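ok, trying the design again with the full structure, not the truncated one.
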């Protein structure tokens, strides 16, 4: 039975750190964060992937690049040079795949420009990886990783989850789950045809699911579903084109918990396809010259994914506000100590 409630101390940021020191919610959260770190390393070590130590600044933003993205990059100035705080270092993981045949991965901070709310943090942790292979390879790997995390929580964090969520049934289901359901984006749109405001259309061939659309789709599939082959214009340019249809992307979002919790995709394997994608998305090639050169010099078929750690913890604790899953708060535009 649930015995520990979140204190909602994010509502008073100046006193939040005192609540963290005193409240059992945050002592439990510390344990769960540690389990994720150790079990992630254990999972990838078994598969021969290499952990990368990467900077948090970049000149080549990746995730908030699609027209359908709900994120904006965070730009700063360092010694007079405009740069960005990393939204994702997925490009660097592709670079790492050229060095590590078994793939590359990390756990590191991610910075986003949108305000925090129930489902978004301004700064959060990403568990990201890139592996040789196609979209199906990475989707199968994601499911294996999630089963591994769920099993680790059951083994090492059962008491904490029971106190925070009141049950471990969801963990036991995921730990023992087989392949999760898959639908294409177009199939999802058809299934949601009777749901008002389920699909957002920014322009022709650039649609995405809304939060209410994601929730309705999860209900239809028992809480877990992959949505594959979205409109290419709704995702970043580096996602590969679907076979014989450049309007669609070889990418997929896994919906569970609050909605999109994992994003995955296959990358372009030829420079011609990459340049066509840059043109289609109206992204100047000079901004990504190094990325084009890397693919020309060392072509490789890779696919990768990103798991929002706090979103996974939100699901694991069966909670409804992601702002309660940060030990130390960071809200854009607010000076918060420590």
């Amino acid at each position: 039975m649930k015995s520990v409630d979140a204190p909602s101390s994010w509502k008073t940021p100046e006193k939040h750190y005192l609540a963290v020191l005193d409240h059992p919610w945050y002592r439990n959260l510390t344990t769960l964060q540690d389990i994720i770190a150790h079990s992630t390393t254990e999972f990838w070590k078994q598969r021969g992937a290499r952990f990368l130590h990467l900077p948090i600044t970049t000149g080549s933003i990746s995730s908030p690049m699609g027209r359908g993205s709900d994120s904006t990059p965070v730009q700063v100035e360092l010694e007079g040079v405009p740069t960005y705080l990393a939204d994702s270092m997925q490009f660097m993981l592709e670079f790492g795949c050229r060095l590590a045949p078994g793939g590359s991965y990390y756990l590191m901070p991610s910075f986003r420009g949108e305000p925090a709310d129930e489902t978004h943090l301004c700064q959060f942790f990403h568990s990201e990886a890139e592996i040789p292979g196609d979209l199906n390879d990475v989707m199968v790997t994601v499911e294996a990783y999630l089963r591994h995390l769920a099993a680790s929580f059951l083994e090492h964090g059962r008491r904490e989850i029971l106190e925070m969520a009141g049950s471990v049934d969801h963990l036991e289901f995921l730990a023992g789950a087989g392949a999760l359901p898959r639908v294409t984006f177009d199939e999802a749109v058809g299934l949601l045809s009777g749901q008002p405001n389920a699909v957002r259309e920014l322009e022709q061939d650039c649609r995405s699911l809304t939060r209410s659309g994601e929730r309705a789709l999860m209900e239809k599939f028992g809480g877990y579903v992959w949505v594959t082959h979205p409109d290419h214009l709704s995702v970043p340019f580096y996602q590969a084109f679907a076979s014989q249809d450049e309007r669609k992307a070889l990418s997929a979002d896994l919906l569970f918990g609050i909605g999109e919790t994992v994003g995955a995709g296959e990358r372009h394997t030829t420079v011609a396809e990459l340049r066509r994608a840059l043109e289609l998305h109206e992204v100047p090639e000079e901004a990504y010259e190094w990325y084009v050169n890397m693919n020309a010099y060392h072509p490789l078929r890779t696919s990768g994914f990103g798991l929002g750690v706090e979103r996974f913890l939100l699901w694991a604790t069966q909670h409804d506000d992601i702002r309660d899953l940060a030990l130390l708060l960071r809200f854009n535009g607010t000076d918060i100590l420590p």
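Keeping the full-length input from now on. The first strand starts at residue 50 and ends at 51.
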